[in-house]
Amino acid sequence: MSRLPQGYRRCIACRRLAHRQEFWRVIRLASTGAIALDQGEGRSAYLCPTVACFNQGRRKNRLGRALRSAIPDSVWVALEARLSVTICPSLSEGSDG
Ligand SMILES: [Zn+2]
Q1: How far apart, in Å, are the Cα atoms of 42 and each of 21, 28, 32, 75, 97?
Q2: How far does the centroid of ligand 1 lie from the alpha carbon of residue 13, in Å?
Q3: Which CATH superfamily is domain 8-85 in?
Q4: How deeply is 96 buried, as exposed, middle or buried, from its count of CB atoms within 10 A (0-12, 13-18, 19+)?
Q5: Any idea of the CA torsion for 77, 79, 80, 84, to the nearest 10 degrees?
Q6: Which helix (H) or strand (E) holds 25?
Q7: Which of 9, 28, 61, 80 is the most buried (most CB within 10 A)?
Q8: Whole-angstrom Cα distance, residue 48 to residue 62?
Q9: Spatial CB neighbours of 94, under 8 Å, sequence gap ≥ 6
């Protein structure tokens, strides 16, 4: 891994660099090998909470490759549900295009 500023992570879909709080965190738990969201110890991958990165992570299996594990459908269902609440018109002003 290249060195990143403190607290910064890179999206596994678009490679955007941002503070980790801006991303969804997906973890392959070290204890069980199960895939978890937000919390847990293990190998982590970060994904922008956007439709574009969700789709890339899913269709191109970027997330599965980043975690070296199959991503269960339940994880995608949970993330897809978040998309609808995360994307809010008031947040999209000043698009960073
Ligand atoms: Zn992204």
Answers
A1: 18, 5, 10, 16, 33
A2: 5
A3: YlxR-like (3.30.1230.10)
A4: exposed
A5: 140
A6: strand 24-29
A7: 28
A8: 13
A9: none
Q: Where are the domains of the chain?
A: 8-85
Between the CA of 7 and the centroid of ligand 1 the distance, in Å, is: 16
Dist. CA 50 → ligand 1 center (Å):
7
Distance 20 CA to ligand 1 centre (A): 12
List the structure tokens of 55. Answer: 């789709």
Q: Digits of tens for pLDDT over the chain (97 positions)? A: 567 899 999 999 999 999 999 999 999 999 999 999 999 999 999 999 999 999 999 999 999 999 999 999 999 999 999 997 655 556 555 555 5
